[in-house]
Amino acid sequence: MYIPFKLIFGNNPPHIQGVDAIPVAVKDPRVRGAYNKRVMKAYIKYRILDRARHVKQAQNRENSIAQIKPPIDALIAVTTQICKEAAVKIRKLKVGKVPWSPTLQAVRDSQKLWALVIQRRERKKVSRSLLKRTMKKCHMISIENISLEQAKENRKVAHAAYLKEVRKAPDTRKKYQESLAKVLAEENDTKKLSELKNLRQRENKGIKQGESDK
């Protein structure tokens, strides 16, 4: 989500050094959508569009470059940082011996959550922000009424679910790729089989490249 250059600077913009944000080079349109939502949420939080309008209004009043340039530089800096942070949060590479899928990630998150809860109940140092993020991933609203014994039991259940998921991870990965190929085919107006073939070719190429780098 970007502000049009012309909206900020008009038809006679001042000379400004260009700035590049980290690109989110992903194929999954659902990930791109999540990136756009995160950027827009930050734009609203920091009132980026309002600040852009103020810059435009200052230019319409024919204010001097010395007056306009500082808020422009500040606007560029904050929007670039917003895009970088969104890209870092969204663009997470899933690699390892166990084939990744959203289902596998969900049970891993559950394991992590209960490990953090146990540490907290044992009065060990636990990052509050990390705990809150993990709870959000697991759709957990509160842990206040969960005892140490309950947390340990839940960790056992989560570990058993993880072991079960690992055994069927290859099949789950295939199903995930098929669902992704369907979404890509609808977006690109192509065939599902073609998109699926491309996904698997890229994955096999990445695996071979990783093995050669060892």
Summarize the structure.
With 214 residues, the protein is mostly helical.
Explain what the structure shows.
This protein has 214 residues and is mainly α. It folds into two domains: 5-90, no CATH class; 102-213, no CATH class. 71% of the residues lie in helices and 0% in strands. α5 packs antiparallel against α7. The longest helix is centred in the middle third of the chain and has 26 residues, at 65-90. The protein starts with a helix and ends with a helix.
Structural class, please? mainly alpha
Kindly give the count of domains.
2
Mean of residue pLDDT? Answer: 82
Count the helices. How many?
9
Instruction: Outline the biggest β-sheet.
Output: none
- SSE string, helix = H, strand = E? HHHHHHHHH
Which regions are unreliable across 5 or more consecutive residues at pLDDT < 50? none
Keywords for this entry:
mainly alpha
What's the topology here?
Elements: H1 5-9, H2 29-45, H3 48-60, H4 65-90, H5 102-121, H6 128-137, H7 148-167, H8 169-188, H9 192-213
Helix pairs in contact: 2-4, 3-4, 5-6, 5-7, 8-9
